[in-house]
């Protein structure tokens, strides 16, 4: 089981649309840069929104999750966030051996139940435990002394992670969870720590991969979840799809994509109303030094259509990687001489360093670098007459929806005085569209920087902006 997920992660690590009818102002972005956070679950209690997050502790360039505890953030305006610290950790579950992954908190009768996936050291890999506390901030203690859900639970998911718990108006609570395309659902007993009846495989949850989030609005049940099919995201990346139902156990009807892929390969939604405004809370790799295993929770406003469908969320997050906003800092590209292995005669290499902020990956209005009809690996390069210290690049890919597509992968290299070598500690070379893909690395002092770009089969590649910071 673990090997399957590790293989999926290896694939993810190897690869690295915004539209709206409303005009939201930028939201908090990210909620903190003091630590890396992931897998948000949101809860509103009184005038406060709480975010229960995972905590990414992978080193720069790490290729797997290092997650040992969960933090709780709170806010009364959804903009300024207080980190209340690690309110739960693996040590809360004496039977757990690692992997403090995506949890969720559900209130009932004045208590707060925190459902959390951990490596239970038993058969298989991940189990779901439950802790309980008397306040949204705990303290939390193990409510069962063992897993609520494990591989020995009949009809459990191929990977028992990512619980979402929803309590209906009649008091019946439901738990959804799963990964590896295996969504599962069950009723919970009123004690909230035991399943009530069989585990079902709900129908109609189209392209489910993992990370379900369940809620209800105007009598309709909503299930948002991470999908990673080619209809919504690049290879290895997730988008957030959603389905609706008239019964909490389904069947569900798939409604579409509510959040496009972000700058991290994984994504994980929480959708909630707070003080009259709906929000999509999610994570990306946008914080300084971020990456697929160094993620950051952020949130954006979410708007509804009159028919009860959700508008696609506009990623307004700033400061690196989210929402199509360039990162801050000195862009050394502006003073560089650009060259390339190949550029189409009708394209403009210089466009990659004109400082223009593209509206989307299809925005050719200020020119673009493109290498149609070449396929395979091509490169673009910056040179400076004297060495510059560079520790980050931001790449905005060109995608004309014809012969030029987002690349399969990329690699940043620098000239070490005698050869091109990979930059040290590269955080991952993102290939997301409609945004600046941030790659951080241990700063190098160099006169040349190169971006090797490998195309997807059957396509060429292009770049709208390439920043060197
Ligand atoms: O953070 C570890 C795993 O990555 C979560 O359980 C998934 O939802 C994905 O975000």
From TrEMBL:
Residues 1-27 form the signal peptide. The keyword Hydrolase applies. It comes from the Bacteria. Keywords: Carbohydrate metabolism, Glycosidase, Hydrolase, Polysaccharide degradation, Signal, Xylan degradation. The keyword Transmembrane does not apply. Belongs to the glycosyl hydrolase 43 family. This is Xylosidase. It comes from Streptosporangium lutulentum. The lineage of its organism: Bacteria, Bacillati, Actinomycetota, Actinomycetes, Streptosporangiales.
């Amino acid at each position: 089981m673990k090997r399957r997920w590790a293989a999926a992660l290896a694939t993810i690590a190897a690869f690295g649309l915004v539209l709206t009818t409303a005009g939201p102002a930028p939201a908090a972005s990210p909620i903190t840069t003091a630590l890396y956070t992931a897998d948000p679950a949101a809860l509103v209690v009184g005038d406060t929104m709480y975010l229960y997050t995972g905590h990414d502790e992978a080193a720069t360039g790490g290729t797997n999750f290092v997650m040992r505890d969960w933090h709780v953030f709170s806010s009364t305006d959804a903009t300024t966030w207080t980190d209340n610290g690690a309110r739960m950790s693996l040590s809360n579950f004496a039977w757990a051996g690692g992997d403090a992954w995506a949890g969720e908190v559900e209130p009932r009768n004045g208590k707060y139940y925190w459902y959390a996936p951990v490596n239970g050291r038993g058969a298989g890999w991940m189990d779901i435990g439950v802790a309980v506390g008397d306040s949204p901030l705990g303290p939390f203690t193990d409510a069962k002394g063992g897993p609520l859900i494990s591989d020995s639970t009949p009809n459990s998911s191929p990977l028992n992670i990512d619980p979402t718990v929803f309590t209906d108006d009649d008091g019946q609570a439901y738990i959804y969870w799963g990964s590896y395309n295996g969504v599962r659902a069950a009723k919970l007993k009123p004690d909230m720590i035991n399943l009530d009846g069989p585990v079902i495989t709900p129908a109609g949850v189209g392209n489910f991969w993992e990370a379900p989030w369940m809620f209800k609005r105007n009598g309709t049940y909503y299930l948002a979840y991470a999908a990673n099919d080619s209809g919504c995201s690049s290879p290895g990346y997730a988008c957030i799809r959603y389905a609706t139902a008239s019964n909490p156990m389904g069947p569900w009807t798939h409604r579409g994509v509510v959040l496009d892929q972000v700058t991290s390969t994984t994504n994980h939604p929480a959708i909630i109303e707070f003080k009259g405004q709906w929000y999509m809370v999610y994570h990306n790799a946008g914080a300084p030094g971020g990456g697929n295993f160094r993620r950051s929770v952020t949130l954006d406003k979410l708007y509804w259509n009159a028919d009860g469908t959700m508008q696609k969320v506009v990623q307004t997050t700033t400061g690196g990687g989210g929402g199509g906003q360039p990162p801050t800092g000195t862009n050394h590209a502006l003073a560089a001489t650009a060259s390339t292995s190949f550029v189409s005669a009708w394209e403009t290499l210089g466009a990659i360093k004109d400082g223009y902020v593209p509206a989307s990956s299809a925005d050719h209005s200020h020119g673009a670098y493109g290498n149609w009809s070449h396929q395979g690996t091509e490169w673009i390069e910056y040179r400076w007459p004297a060495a510059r210290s560079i520790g980050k690049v931001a790449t905005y890919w060109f995608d004309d929806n014809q012969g030029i597509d987002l690349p399969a992968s990329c690699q940043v290299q620098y000239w070490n005085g005698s050869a091109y070598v990979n930059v040290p500690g590269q955080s991952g070379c993102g290939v997301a569209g409609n945004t600046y893909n941030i790659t951080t690395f241990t700063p190098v002092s160099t006169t040349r920087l190169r971006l090797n770009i490998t195309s997807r089969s059957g396509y060429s590649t292009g770049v709208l902006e390439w920043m060197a910071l």
